[in-house]
């Protein structure tokens, strides 16, 4: 068995209050570490809040560097709590290439294990962020992690690419609002079954109108079974234990990854 403990935070962001949101995130990280979590995941753009109408052009001003002070504070929290962390935020791209709707992935020792920049931008996000160019699985101490952000999960190729790279757990920090909940309910069991791997989706809470987020974190197992259907409209952290060995067991009887005809497709992992 390869038991892994996930801590998934339905975070209620205070719009544009980076320091306050970071402080509250650190408290969640410490709590998760104290409960034996291996990985803590926060929602899309949790550090600033998600609202392109309210925040808009200010995302560029609020963007953080992976080497900056806010990320250093999160790194130190991860090190103290001995837990891996996925921390989404507006992220300054290297070489002055703009701002991504990104995430910093922190290892248990407090080092930066990698970064990810959302590839498929949703509607007005295109006005404020530079899209990413690909997906790469990241090796952490419990296994290989694949990161997608929200709309990315609507493209099956994204998950399949990560699975073919050996990702054993896909995490999807998100900002889903109520009008799109039917998609939220469908995506993650489907992506898990298609790739015989665990999928954990983390949604924010709070906001107003088109940007009212409702939480309802999800975890799906490698046979498409729903393991977590989180509470609605409440800030909460759910701890879920999974066994990554179940991926291999499922793949024996549902051999999608073995039988896929990569040669028949235009894209490559």
TrEMBL record:
<dbReference type="GO" id="GO:0016811">
    <property type="term" value="F:hydrolase activity, acting on carbon-nitrogen (but not peptide) bonds, in linear amides"/>
</dbReference>
<dbReference type="InterPro" id="IPR050345">
    <property type="entry name" value="Aliph_Amidase/BUP"/>
</dbReference>
<keyword id="KW-0012">Acyltransferase</keyword>
<dbReference type="InterPro" id="IPR036526">
    <property type="entry name" value="C-N_Hydrolase_sf"/>
</dbReference>
<dbReference type="Pfam" id="PF00795">
    <property type="entry name" value="CN_hydrolase"/>
</dbReference>
<keyword id="KW-0808">Transferase</keyword>
<keyword id="KW-0378">Hydrolase</keyword>
<dbReference type="InterPro" id="IPR003010">
    <property type="entry name" value="C-N_Hydrolase"/>
</dbReference>
<protein>
    <submittedName>
        <fullName>Acyltransferase</fullName>
    </submittedName>
</protein>
<feature type="domain" description="CN hydrolase">
    <location>
        <begin position="4"/>
        <end position="244"/>
    </location>
</feature>
<dbReference type="GO" id="GO:0016746">
    <property type="term" value="F:acyltransferase activity"/>
</dbReference>
């Amino acid at each position: 068995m390869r038991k892994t403990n996930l801590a998934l935070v339905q975070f209620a962001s205070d719009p544009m209050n980076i320091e306050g949101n970071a402080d509250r995130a650190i408290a969640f990280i410490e709590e998760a570490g104290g409960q034996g979590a291996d990985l803590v995941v926060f929602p899309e753009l949790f550090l600033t809040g998600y609202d392109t109408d309210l925040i808009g052009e200010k995302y560029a001003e609020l963007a953080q560097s992976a080497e900056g002070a806010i990320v250093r504070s999160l790194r130190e929290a991860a090190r103290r709590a001995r837990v891996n962390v996925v921390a989404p935020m507006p992220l300054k791209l290297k070489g002055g290439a703009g701002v991504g709707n990104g995430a910093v992935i922190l290892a248990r020792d407090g080092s930066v294990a990698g970064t990810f920049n959302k590839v498929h931008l949703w509607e007005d996000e295109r006005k404020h962020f530079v899209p990413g160019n690909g997906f790469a699985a990241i090796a952490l101490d419990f296994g290989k992690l694949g990161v997608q952000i929200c709309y990315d999960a609507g493209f099956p190729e994204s998950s399949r690419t990560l699975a073919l790279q050996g990702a054993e757990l896909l995490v999807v920090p998100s900002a889903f609002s109520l009008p799109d909940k039917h998609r939220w309910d469908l995506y993650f069991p489907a992506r898990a079954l298609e790739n015989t791997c665990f999928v954990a989706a983390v949604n924010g809470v709070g906001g107003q109108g088109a940007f009212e987020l409702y939480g309802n974190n999800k975890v799906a197992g490698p046979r498409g079974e729903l393991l977590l259907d989180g509470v609605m409209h409440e800030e909460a952290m759910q701890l879920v234990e999974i066994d990554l060995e179940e991926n291999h067991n499922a793949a024996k009887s549902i051999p999608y990854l073995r039988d896929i005809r990569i040669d028949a497709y235009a894209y490559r992992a």
